[in-house]
Design brief:
heterodimer, A: 115 residues, mainly alpha, 4 helices, 0% strand, B: 482 residues, alpha/beta, six-stranded parallel β-sheet
Chain lengths: 115, 482
Amino acid sequence: MNFTIHITGFVAIYIFMLAAFAGWVIIGRVPAILHTPLMSGSNFVHGIVVVGGLFALLNASTRQEQVIGFFAVLLGAGNVAGGYAVTGRMLAMFKPSVKAGAVHNIASPTNTTKG
Amino acid sequence: MIIQFSQLVIGAVDLIAAFLFMYGLKRMSSPVTAGSGIYVAGIGMLVAVLASFLYALDVEPAARPFLEINIGLALCALVIGGGVSWWGGKTVAMTAMPQMVAIYNGMGGGAAAAIAGVELFGAKTTGPTQLAVTLLGALIGAISLSGSIIAWAKLDEILRTPLRFRGQQAFNALVLVATVAVGGYIVFVLQTGTAPLLSMPHLIELFFACALLFGILMTMPIGGADMPVVISIYNAATGLAVGLEGFVLENPALMIAGMVVGAAGLLLTLLMARAMNRSVSNILFTNFGTVVKQTQGDIKGSLKPAAAADAAIAMRYASSVIVVPGYGLAAAQAQTKLYDFVKLLTAAGVSVKFAVHPVAGRMPGQMDVLLAEAGVPYDMIYQLDDINEDFEDTEVSLVIGANDVVNPEARTEKTSPIYGMPILNADRAKHVYVIKRGQGKGYAGIVNPLFYEENCNMVYGDAAAVLAEMIEAVRGLTKAAA
């Protein structure tokens, strides 16, 4: 069995087309209330570039390639970690009302994270 | 055998990661499931990064002697880059969120450009298509990197005035054409084997320098108010760059995740631009907010100040109140106080709703996040289209730190720079209270005739201080009654 992945020509275009369509449809139904977390969330997803950076760095064979590859992983890791931290913090804040008229007396927890 | 096994694992894990990214984004599309959405996507990212260390089993022969150093470098880069960003993301204030997203996005673009750099300097790509795609990804990634840094500096108010000069559009176009020309020349030289005018490494360096310069030049003239849309464009651009480099590396996970974000980012950009009543090309290629000097129609009426306590008591005895928050509320860090006041009103039986304009705050949806941070449940928050008709049947609308988004001139005054922008009909409530720092103008620099209307009173002061007074007034009332 051979598990090497080869993507050329039309196969790439098919992948790009379907992925673009999927992205468009997935985001199309998002309510405005979630626009900021969503921008941040999609920002996190393109942090997958760190995997490409790791591939480039592990295959580096000159000092120059090592330096540039190091920066690729460094920046990619920053994209991933920061994107996750920020998105997670924002989404953790969205909470529904406490149910059934009891809203008034319950001091709902204010999870204010002081910056 | 072991190499085949590692290829199988990497292939399977990347497939799972691509699925989890899309499923996670889908879950993020509803407030009910959003919290778990980022968790799902996070698992995909974690397994993809772990599996990518299996690349070490099957590196190019030339890289074998360096493998141990490279693994060490990779671990260092992951720990340093990830650690610093994680700390930054965890500690940044919610109001500074837009510039933080800009920085993380720039990092992603920079990473894509750096991957292209390794491919180009190491002469790893062959064939005209591969080369062209590598260069295109490098161009987009580099623009996204330098552009995002400028966007960050503008939002952080390090750069305060937009840089504009005569013939700027032409000059920018020239730089872009030069970048593409250098890229084309690189492909030509490598494909035909002709002797280049400059040495190849210098040509590649020139290409990156031009691309980075273009990103800076393109972002410099755009005003701070338009930055959110610009960040969204760069977010989509980074996705595209990642997808293109994924093609070069023949990595379908990068291709899919990158292209999904590219398309999603494009749609998000269009939604934001529509909410601001601006077209994307308008934002990128015209200079908004330079000097808004236009004659304004005579404003009738006068500003009528009111005491905070009086306004609070009027709202306490109203049947319905709609709160219209704006960036001034966030600037005064008064969201929690506002919600405390609202809780007092609802306890007294007043029906209270929050009306959020799409561009309230500095990034679409940012006001929703800031209210959520203060503990406001999302079912009390209404968007423009869902609430605009309710104002007519509402007794009081309370405008806090918002200005342009409730300016009725946008409906009627054709010469106004905000003409045509959808606004919240706060002026149609029976009574309007406006909490405002002073008599200044809004972001667009125009006077708001709403403040001069017969049914409008101004409560001057810092939003936090005013709300504290309002809370005291309503509490005092309850005590007196008891």
